Amino acid sequence: MKKILKFLTSRLFIRCLIILLQLIVLFVLVYSLSAYSIYIQGVMTIMSLIFALALVNNDDSNPMFKISWLIPILTFPVAGWIFYFVFERRKVSHNTEIKYLEILESCKDTIEQDPDVLHEIEEEHRSAAKIFRYIQNTSNSCVYNNTQTEFFPSGELFFKSYIEELKKAEKFIFIEYFIIAKGKMWHSILEILKEKAANDVEIRVMYDDVGTINLLERDYHKKLNSYGIKTVIFNPFRASLDTFLNYRDHRKITVIDGNVAFTGGLNLADEYVNKKVRFGYWKDCALMLKGDAVSSMSLLFLQLWDLATDGPEIDFNKYFSTKKYEPDGFVQPFGDGPINGNLIGKLAYISIINNAKNYVHIATPYLILDNEMITALCLSAKSGIDVKIITPKVPDKWYVHCVTRSNYLVLIKSGVRIYEYSPGFIHSKTIVADDKYAIVGTANFDFRSFYLHFENGVFMYKSKAVQQVAGDYQDTLDESSEITLVMCNNTPFLKRILRSILRLFSPLM
Question: Which domains does the chain have, with CATH numbers?
Answer without folding.
Answer: 2-87 (no CATH), 94-120+146-328 (3.30.870.10), 344-508 (3.30.870.10)
